[in-house]
Amino acid sequence: MEPKVWDYNECALCCVKIPAMTLCYVTKPDQPYFLLCDSCYESQITPKLAQ
């Protein structure tokens, strides 16, 4: 691994580390940037989409 290379992001809700090249969800380009892990997306966003 190279020094000073960013190899993960953090979920905006639960702060879990999301490794690079892992499934995650981000907001649309014209909105403020938020990144969610798969678990938070399923528990927080999916139910709201079903309403």
Give a structural overview.
- It is a single chain.
- With 51 residues, this protein is an alpha+beta fold.
- The chain has one domain (8-49).
- Helix content is 24%, strand content 24%.
- The protein is built from one helix and four strands.
- The strands form two sheets. Strands 1-2 form a two-stranded antiparallel sheet. A two-stranded antiparallel sheet has the order 3-4.
- A hairpin with a 6-residue loop joins strand 1 and strand 2 (17-19).
- The model has no long low-confidence stretch (mean pLDDT 90).
Kindly summarize this structure in a few lines.
This protein is of the alpha+beta class.
Mean pLDDT: 90
Radius of gyration: 13 Å
The general outline is: elongated
| CA(first)-CA(last) distance | 44 Å
| Count of discrete alpha- or pi-helical segments spanning 4 or more residues | 1
Q: What kind of oligomer do you see? A: single chain
Biggest beta sheet summary: 2 strands, antiparallel
How would you classify the helix and strand content by structural class?
A: alpha+beta
Number of domains: 1
| H and E string | EEEEH
What's the total number of strands?
4
Question: Strand order, biggest sheet?
Answer: 1-2
**% residues in beta strands:** 15-25%
